[in-house]
């Protein structure tokens, strides 16, 4: 006998089915609640509300578990390439050698962007934040590929748009940086792999031979894998709900980039470094800043700490923290911000305020220190998060369209004026 949930309302008892996922998560299916009872549920921020079922990513916030299509993140970060993980997330299985070679070469064919787009870059001020540029550029891609405006045109057309996005996002990101520096754009090099090609477009100059330490390429590969998907987070839910209106994939991803920009979400990695630099400039008095983070009257929060789902260590933060030590040692970088970050973490994790609220370092707490060590400018940190998260956004959008999910349209409880009549402006006070 399958489990059900009974709700008593207005003297009646209503029964709703309980569904269970493959990882034994349970949900009360209230799809029929309003029709049966006239009631809706209210859950600001969707802290207790599942928006969908999904077979892409599983995370257990209590146990600190994260798996992409059943593969533990620890194994993928250690052994896989980012393009392999992108294929896994989007198409459901790790690729065979032939599938990987085909996927990689197809991506390589689409790394260029239409030459007309260079004029868009030149119209931006040098101080333009690259997330604003990236979000606009990704939506603008749809204007060059009108056949992509119908997301359900054909599986082949969908795959082509997916390839174009995976291939062009690093180019657009690197060119946003080059434009801010007023440096010449570097065109992609097909002989480089995904990460090395991005670093080339970011840092190479036409007048010099390009050299990059393999340690830096490996670090970027690991960071992109760790950011690749995270089930129904704010930006992924944005991509899904925009896509649910049958808006094209470029527009859906552009909306996801905008949602990721927020300092409470992907923008936190930039905020963490700026916070650590502020503490460093202030003399490194970590205890003072932990006190500020706990003070309700003080708007300061410990950026990179806390998480809606992880009430234990974010498994990605554990991997990144270890990678931090390894990479900075290999590169011979001695960053005082790392020492401050470790001290901040130690003080916070021993403090009752943080312990009682299950506040631990999240994916953003250490990632900025690695990005800084490999030369990525702070304002580009959230762009790096977007490049990493792109395959996850695409996979989630593809799953939503293939499941033919209805347009997302939450309900509300109205709390405003009940009835008023128009009166002339002379009578208004
Ligand atoms: C990402 O969802 C995802 O999966 C996101 C992400 C992904 O991969 O997509 O993991 C990426 O966005 C990571 C989070 C990056 N953001 C930050 O590091 C910003 C700092 N963190 C917080 O703003 C906060 O922890 C959130 C936004 C991450 C989570 O907020 P919640 O779940 O809404 O929790 P809350 O704000 O209600 O906080 C609960 C309590 C509150 O105190 P009380 O009202 O109980 O007294 O904890 C406090 C908060 O004031 N609190 C913090 C804190 N985070 C929460 N206090 C100080 N410093 C913090 N960082």
List keywords for this structure.
429 residues, mainly alpha, Rubrerythrin, domain 2, Citrate Synthase, domain 1, 18 helices, globular, binds s-citryldethia Coenzyme A
Protein architecture, described:
With about 425 residues, the chain is mostly helical. The chain folds into two domains: about 60 residues, Rubrerythrin, domain 2, CATH 2.20.28; about 350 residues, Orthogonal Bundle (Citrate Synthase, domain 1). It contains 18 helices and six strands. The chain is globular. The mean pLDDT is about 95. S-citryldethia Coenzyme A binds next to α17. The site of s-citryldethia Coenzyme A (SDX) has 21 residues, from α17.
What layout of secondary structure does this protein have?
Layout: E1 4-9, E2 12-20, E3 26-28, H1 33-37, E4 57-60, E5 65-68, E6 71-72, H2 73-79, H3 82-91, H4 97-109, H5 117-123, H6 130-144, H7 155-181, H8 194-203, H9 214-226, H10 234-243, H11 249-260, H12 268-281, H13 286-294, H14 315-331, H15 336-349, H16 352-356, H17 363-373, H18 381-402
Antiparallel strand pairs: 1-2, 2-3, 4-5, 5-6
The structure holds s-citryldethia Coenzyme A (SDX).
Sequence of strands across the biggest β-sheet: 1-2-3
The appropriate CATH architecture of the largest domain is Orthogonal Bundle
Largest sheet: 3 strands, antiparallel
Provide the β-strand percentage band: 5-15%
What oligomerization state is this entry in?
A: single chain
User: What is the helix tally?
Assistant: 18
Estimate the global geometry from the Cα principal axes. globular
Under CATH, the homologous superfamily of the largest domain reads: Citrate Synthase, domain 1
CATH class of the largest domain: Mainly Alpha
**Rg estimate, integer Å:** 24 Å
Order of helices and strands: EEEHEEEHHHHHHHHHHHHHHHHH
Strand count: 6
Number of domain units: 2
Structural class: mainly alpha
* Bound molecule kinds, no repeats: s-citryldethia Coenzyme A
Query: Mean pLDDT, rounded to whole units?
Result: 96
Return residue spans where pLDDT drops below 50 for at least 5 consecutive residues.
Answer: none
């Amino acid at each position: 006998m399958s489990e059900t949930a009974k709700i008593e309302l207005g003297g009646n008892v209503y029964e709703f089915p309980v569904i269970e996922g493959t990882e034994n998560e349970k949900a009360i299916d209230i799809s029929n609640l309003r029709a049966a009872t006239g009631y809706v549920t209210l859950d600001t921020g969707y802290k207790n509300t599942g928006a969908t079922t999904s077979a892409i990513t599983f995370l257990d916030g209590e146990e600190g578990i994260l798996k992409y299509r059943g593969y533990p993140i620890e194994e993928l970060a250690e052994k896989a390439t980012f393009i392999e993980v992108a294929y896994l997330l989007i198409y459901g299985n790790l690729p065979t050698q032939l599938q990987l070679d085909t996927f990689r070469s197809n991506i390589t064919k689409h790394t260029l962007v239409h030459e007309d787009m260079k004029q868009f870059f030149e119209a931006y001020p040098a101080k333009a934040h690259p997330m604003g540029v990236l979000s606009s550029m990704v939506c603008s891609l749809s204007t060059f590929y009108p056949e992509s405006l119908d997301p359900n045109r054909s599986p082949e057309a969908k795959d082509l748009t997916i390839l174009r996005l995976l291939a062009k996002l690093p180019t657009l990101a690197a060119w946003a940086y080059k434009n801010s520096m007023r440096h010449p754009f570097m065109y992609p090099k097909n002989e480089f792999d995904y990460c090395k090609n991005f670093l080339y477009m970011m840092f190479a100059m036409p007048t010099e031979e390009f050299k990059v330490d393999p340690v830096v390429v490996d670090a970027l590969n690991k960071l992109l894998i760790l950011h690749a998907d995270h089930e129904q987070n704010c930006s992924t839910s944005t991509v899904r709900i925009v896509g649910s209106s049958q808006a094209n994939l470029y527009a859906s991803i552009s909306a996801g980039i905008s949602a990721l920009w927020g300092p409470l979400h992907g923008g936190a990695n930039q905020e963490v470094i700026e916070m650590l630099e502020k503490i460093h400039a202030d003399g490194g008095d970590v205890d003072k800043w932990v006190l500020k983070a706990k003070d309700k009257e003080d708007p300061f929060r410990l950026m990179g700490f806390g998480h809606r789902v992880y009430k234990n260590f974010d498994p990605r933060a554990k991997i990144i923290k270890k990678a931090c030590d390894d990479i900075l040692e290999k590169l011979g970088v001695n960053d005082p911000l790392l020492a401050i970050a470790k001290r901040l973490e130690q003080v916070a994790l021993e403090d009752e305020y943080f312990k009682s609220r299950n506040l631990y370092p999240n994916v953003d707490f250490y990632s900025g220190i690695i990005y800084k060590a490999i030369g990525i400018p702070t304002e580009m940190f959230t762009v790096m998060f977007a490049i990493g998260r792109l395959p996850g956004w695409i996979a989630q959008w593809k799953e939503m369209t293939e499941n033919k999910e209805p347009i997302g349209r939450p309900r509300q409880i109205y709390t405003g004026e009940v009835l008023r009549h128009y009166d002339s402006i002379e009578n208004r006070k």
